[in-house]
Amino acid sequence: VQLVESGGGLVQPGGSLRLSCAASGFPFSNYPMGWFRQAPGKEREFVASIIGNGYNTYYADSVKGRFTISRDNEKNTVYLQMNSLKPEDTAVYYCNVQINFYDVWGRGTQVTVSS
Asked: How many CA atoms lie within 13 A of 30 on its CB side?
């Protein structure tokens, strides 16, 4: 099982980024996928999740209305579209899947929101 995140970078406040997470090694469409983030000195926190067929999504209150999670089951990829970014969104963003009650994480991608 492997998760590889990409798409992070430096962006000004109010800007946008789209993160991608390419998954392999498991039947992707059968599993909910999630995005988490960890800012310096803080614990990792939930950002968003999406069920296997993509019909239901869930968001942390802090990103609701600004971020959108989606998935392409043909490409085994989950996305996080981030709009209206704020400095407090600065963090390493991680992709997650839970298989047999075991959490699998990617290495993360850095998002920095700064002027």
From this structure: 7
Residue 24 confidence (pLDDT): 97
Q: Which pair of structure tokens corresponds to residue 79? A: 């996305």
CA 29/CA 8 separation, integer angstroms: 24
Interstrand relation of 67-72 and 57-59 (parallel, antiparallel or unpaired):
unpaired
Q: What is the pLDDT of residues 19-66, one digit of tens each?
A: 999 999 999 999 999 999 999 999 999 999 999 888 999 999 999 999
